[in-house]
Amino acid sequence: MSSAQFFAQKTIVPSNVKPESQYIKDEISDAVWYASKGDQKMEIGKITSEVKKLDKNRLLLKTTVKMNQAPEKPWTDSTVVRISDFQPMYHSSYNMMRDMVIKFEKNKATGYYFDKKAQKKDIIDEKISTEYFDSNAYPAIIRFMPLKENISAEMPIFDYNPAVKKGVIKAYVENVIRGDLNGKKVWIVKTTDDIQDRKSVVTYYIDSSTRKVLKQEIDSDGRKMVMESVK
After folding, report:
1. From residue 100, how far is each of 41, 111, 161 by CA, in Å?
2. For 3-10, which contacts have Cβ atoms below 8 Å and span 24 or more sequence positions?
3. pLDDT tens digit string along 157-199?
């Protein structure tokens, strides 16, 4: 579905988002990352996700990915947001390909992006004229926002990639339905974004009672990956 064919019922921004705070708790969860083809699944890595209240105002969202081919070089993404409205404050990302650090203010983003292969450092200094979220935090917004069936929404997100796009683009909640997963009641939330020109679709299976992500399915240009929570 192209952007031209998608009509969101609403736009979610920090000034109107209403996170359901009763679900936001300190937690560490693990998931296994699989590549999927037909009925076959091959494990390619492990993911550890952390949610931590740094104080009464700030929330840390941290993800560490260990790929089976290079377990000694994990990918680490850390984002700090304001708990009340998920206004971004800070984002750091370190992996084998690049290092990136961004400090967010209301109307600008500053920091750097270091391409390790090219040994090239870009200075980030972007003026922003609209409300926005950090691209690394929007899955958490989806998890903690009020959910009901058949809603759709779009949200502006800041994503920096010097090779493709930089600045504020959009993420989309295309549909929400109720379902079951391994005997648990779940919200099934279908999402996409402009980071990959809407060619990648992520479907979240979110426990209705705890709002923990039990499973993710990623469909990207014919490739399918699955991330399953470890009990």
Report:
1. 32, 8, 10
2. 3/170, 3/194, 3/198, 6/152, 6/154, 6/172, 6/174, 7/152, 8/152, 8/153, 8/154, 8/172, 8/173, 9/151, 9/152, 9/153, 10/151, 10/152, 10/153, 10/154
3. 999 888 765 689 999 999 999 999 999 999 999 999 887 777 7
Radius of gyration of the chain (CA): 17
Q: Is the pTM of this model over 0.85?
A: yes
Q: Is 114 exposed, middle or buried (0-12, 13-18, 19+ CB in 10 A)?
A: middle
Burial of 85 (0-12, 13-18, 19+ CB in 10 A): middle
- The 10s digit of each residue's pLDDT in 107-120 is 899 999 999 999 99
